[in-house]
Amino acid sequence: MRDAQRPDLSTTFTVLLAGGRGSRLHELTSRECKPALPFAGPRRIVDFTLANAARSGLTRMIVATQYRPETLAHHLESRWASRFAGGSLRLREGTAVTGSPQGYGGTAAAVAANLAELQSEGVRELVVLAADHVYEMDYADMVAAHRASGASATVAVDTVPTDRASEFGVVRTSEGGRIESFLEKPAVVPADPAIPGRAQVSMGIYVFDLDWLASVLRIIPGATQDFGHDILPLAVALGEAHAYRVPGDNFYWRDVGTLDAYRLAQLEFQTGEAPCALPPRIAASEHEMKAATGELIQFAFRMQTGGIALHSPRLGGDLPGRWTMLDESVLLPGARVAPGVRLTRTIVAPGTSVPAGLVIGEDPDEDARWFRRTEEGTVLVTTPMLARRAADRGRLVAPFADSRMGRSA
Description:
glycogen biosynthesis; 30% helix; glycogen metabolism; Spore Coat Polysaccharide Biosynthesis Protein SpsA, Chain A; nucleotidyltransferase; UDP N-Acetylglucosamine Acyltransferase, domain 1
């Protein structure tokens, strides 16, 4: 029997937007879409949103995929499809749905391209979710708030420091929660006297009355329809947009769309109690589990102090230079580090082996020469970067070795 306190979601459908590349993650997304990137061991970023949907009772979902969808599609079909009853987790790849090599032209265009399927399901409300954020949320509560507000569009909002707000859609609301203004990624973020030093931003989570959204999509022509640039500004102008704040003072939500944000969020789950519920550990192969947090099998034991982890080698543990140090650093699945390595604020990409004695993250100029280093100091290390470094250093060493051989002769 359905909980009387929970909204009836039988006429509610979900579209999960999972086609983004995540270009600010650079080489990490050269072969994977952003939602498929690993996070918190054996999990992927998309797992947080799927776990939220399953817990909330949103069991009918279209997943709109596009960039590099192969790994994501396999993950969803093998790990999540069984949790959505009767084939209700449906993958809709952009080029296949649109018949165009460009695929979906915008976030709202992904909904427009699948609108006929949604309308055939008798959908009343449409929940639109982003697949690339880390958080825990009950979407059923947001649907209930949407219905109570009488608005045609409801936007989930959170607050971030003002200096970060230009990365998001910035929202200003009335005391009653009606959205009075919406600016998509503004260059200058207007001050909000109600929350000094912070700004209210869209989380990329929406609830729409489907009939209203369908009518709006018809008057916004073209294949590049976008929620942030087109739909939400129109909803605000019509007085049809309402903001929803997740209840509680300790709500955790992270957009992990930059190397710095991705590394720091991973550390929040590594160095203490998880700041929000982790998606369940879905059965994985022995190989996947072994590689889930990077391989450190050549080490005898590990000590953790805050963000610093020290690893003692099985052989030569009495030699300080053989210890490995990871300082605020993240090893992604399949990554390996050898004894004597020192990593500071570093992300080691999947499958990358860091050779013995290498020091990364302590010399900004040296880091930037071989690896990708952000202005905030995060260093990304990949196999091709290490190969290029080894090849260049080999060319420098060869003439010196030849000259020594010549003198010996």
